[in-house]
Write a structure and sequence with these properties.
Blueprint lengths: L13 H10 L3 E4 L5 H4 L16 E4 L3 H14 L3 E4 L14 E4 L6 E4 L4 E5 L4 H9 L3 E2 L10 H7 L6 H4 L6 E7 L5 E5 L4 H7 L8 E8 L1 E2 L3 E8 L5 H15 L7 E10 L2 E10 L3 H7 L1 H6 L7 E6 H4 L15 E9 L5 H17 L8 E5 L4 H5 L14 E9 L5 H25 L25 H5 L3 H11 L18
Parallel strand pairs: 2-4, 3-4
Antiparallel strand pairs: 1-2, 5-6, 6-10, 7-11, 8-9, 8-10, 12-14, 12-15, 13-14, 13-17, 16-18, 17-18
Helix pairs in contact: 12-14
The chain binds flavin-adenine dinucleotide (FAD).
Length: 495
């Protein structure tokens, strides 16, 4: 297979860079040549652990710029990374070679009659939400408006509307994609269907998406939403309540109720909480969260109200949970089936407490997450319909270890890995005891949500039974493995 060795571009002749500069409308920023105050901020990533000093950063202004840049990458065998919202847990949007930084391609146009939004490849979720909601429509996006459409759509994408309408990727109608040779092609149900299959869950394995066309949904502008916190003595009751909330409320809400559990450690105690989101009027919403109210939340600090949907995804409301000074993070996750084993939940919390206790100051904003939403819409779509393989019903248990001291990076990466291995082992053991070999709506569906991982999972855990087709498509669309940053599928390697 034709697979050139990728280089970082530091030895490129100046004529080559001059030629690139003169052939694109956008900026070409070069390490050591461009002013530091221009270069350095472009390296910033939400997770500061993954800042890398790229040699060349191209900021395309047009789709043609993207195409020209990709051709340049191909011609010089450069290491290349794509950066859109810069919001990944792991570091695939950073690299040492050339970064195609999509931040200047953020236009959105909405067709109200057709109920579609066409978004440029550098948009963040908030761009599409704002443009759509201004005309009474809503896209399916994630929980946070700062997340890039690029990562969230190509990796799957789960948000509060997913229980009604599926993944972000399930609401993608078409895309324009820059392939490894620089050609821009359309991927849809009508054109290049295999590519369309691959970019819905296969990440950036097959190309860079320069434009997304999303299906929109009619929606009331306001939703009922808020946070509820509980004192540490309520922990056991809180964990017991998770099954009740999922089975008796979330699953009976026609996809309108999303409940997310989160838990932090303060002064050695577990402070549990729920974030609730209900797509309907307050009177209805209140009925759906009655068990939380009965448990006795902490006031002030707890409560829900009607608010514009765009406010519920506003990154600002999460900033107290992710204070900017704590900017090094590892997030990993797994799925556990219902009914949840409260014993496993308790052991998970205890283990988390032990971890935080090792560096209480540094890990104080770390969190455990329990995603109790209704996954049955996502799981109702056949597993081989798209590359996305995690189509099953379950609760996603995640850990966000967050710290602010670079010296802890290596240790924390390992601690998070070991923690999740332990949780997975408990789940496996429990399944065996119950005689469950394979759980979920589809046999073979993975238990992994790849967008919330440390970037280091086995390919078969990410793509499951779709790995074979991923390899076929990689051979067709990217034989030289140019796109090698987010779970790159190497067709030469065994599954
Ligand atoms: C605080 C926080 C909250 C989150 N909440 C959710 C959530 O509610 N639901 C959910 O599903 N996920 C969530 N995520 C995960 C998030 O969806 C992923 O991290 C996603 O990859 C971010 O996309 P990005 O474009 O911002 O990332 P970037 O770091 O810019 O890019 C990451 C990778 O995405 C791919 N990519 C980016 N742009 C393109 C493009 N134009 N074409 C092709 N590939 C591209 C590339 O592989 C790139 O390396 C959350 C993450 C964080 C940090």
């Amino acid at each position: 297979m034709n697979r050139p060795k990728r280089v970082d571009g530091s030895n490129l002749p100046s004529e080559a860079l001059d030629a690139l500069r003169s052939s694109v409308k956008g900026k070409v920023v070069v390490k050591g040549q461009s002013p530091e105050e221009e270069y350095r901020p472009l390296l910033e990533r939400w997770n500061r652990m993954h800042i890398k000093e790229a040699n060349i950063i191209v900021l395309p202004e047009t789709e043609e710029d993207v195409s020209t840049t990709v051709k340049f990458v191909a011609e010089h065998n450069l290491d290349v990374a794509i950066s859109s919202g810069r919001h990944t847990y792991s570091g695939p949007s950073s690299g040492y070679g050339l970064v195609i930084d999509m931040r200047n391609l953020r236009k959105v146009s909405v067709d109200v009659d057709k109920m579609i939004a066409v978004a440029q490849g550098g948009c963040i979720a908030g761009d599409v939400e704002a443009a759509s909601e201004a005309v009474g429509l809503r896209p399916v996006m994630g929980a946070v408006n700062a997340t890039g459409c690029g990562g969230i759509t190509t990796g799957g994408g789960i948000g509060n509307l997913s229980a009604q309408y599926g993944l972000v990727a399930d609401n993608l109608l078409a895309a324009r994609v820059a392939l490894a040779d620089g050609r821009i092609v359309v991927a849809s149900d009508e054109e290049n269907q295999d590519l369309f299959w691959g970019i819905r869950g296969g990440g950036s394995n097959f190309g860079l998406v320069t434009e997304f066309t999303y299906k929109l949904h009619k929606a009331d502008p306001q939703v009922y939403s808020g946070f509820f916190m509980f004192s540490p003595d309520k922990l056991d009751a809180y964990l017991e309540l998770m099954n009740v909330m999922n089975q008796d409320y979330v699953m009976k809400s026609n996809g309108k109720l999303a409940v997310n559990g989160f838990l932090a450690i303060m002064g050695g105690n577990a402070i549990p909480g729920f974030l609730i989101w209900y797509d309907g009027p307050e009177e209805e919403g209140k009925k759906f969260i009655q068990p939380l109210l009965d448990l006795g939340p902490i006031y002030p600090g707890s409560g829900a109200e009607m608010k514009p949907h765009t406010l519920t995804t506003d990154w600002k409301q999460f900033e107290t949970m992710f204070p900017p000074q704590f900017n090094r993070l590892v997030g990993t996750s797994t799925q556990i089936s219902y009914p949840l084993s409260v014993d496993i939940l308790k052991k998970t919390v205890e283990k988390f407490k032990e971890i935080v206790a090792t560096h209480p100051e540094n890990l104080s904003v770390s969190k455990l997450l329990f995603d109790l939403r209704d996954y049955s819409k996502i799981a109702s779509i056949p597993l081989d319909a798209t590359a996305y393989a995690n189509r099953r019903v379950g609760c996603l248990i995640g850990i966000d270890l967050i710290w602010d001291n670079e010296e802890l990076d290596k240790e924390m990466m390992q601690v998070a890995k070991d923690f999740m291995s332990q949780v997975r082992a408990w789940i496996k053991e429990d399944n065996q005891q119950k005689g469950i070999a394979e759980v979920g709506a589809h046999v073979g569906a993975t238990t992994l949500y790849a967008l919330v991982t440390d970037g280091d999972e086995k390919l078969v855990s990410v793509f499951g039974p779709n790995l074979g087709k991923m390899k076929e498509l990689k051979r067709k669309y990217d034989p030289g493995m140019m796109w090698d940053k987010w779970y790159p599928v190497d067709p030469e390697l065994p599954n």
